[in-house]
Amino acid sequence: MIDSHHIEPEDPRITAALRALLAPPDDAAYWSALEATMLARLAEDEDWTAPFARWTGAGLIAAALAALITGAALVRTHDVEAREMATLLETPISYTARVATEVTEPDGREATLRYVIEP
Fold first, then answer.
1. What residue numbers bound the domain in which 83 lies?
2. Does residue 71 have a pLDDT over 90?
3. What is the largest CA-CA distance in the chain?
4. CB-CB neighbours of 100 under 10 Å
């Protein structure tokens, strides 16, 4: 860090220079022209929604793109889940797991007990 460029927080020279630079114009014609420009701009667009109408095309394109990405993600998720389910169904299960899935009581306590007790 260079110390020669250090600025004191209340340097009167810098404060005066910034006030002169950022001061509003004293000329009344400037303010009249600014007001006329603003009123002319407001008169151009009768409806406050007019600027949004120019964005309709971009909004539709963004919505279509979002729908395509969402659809692709859903298809990919479905494919992955289908592959996992197929793998799960093709994998043989152990005798203990088969016994645990054969529920004879409504609450499944017997199947859980068989699963825990049987080797």
1. 9-44+54-117
2. yes
3. 98
4. 19
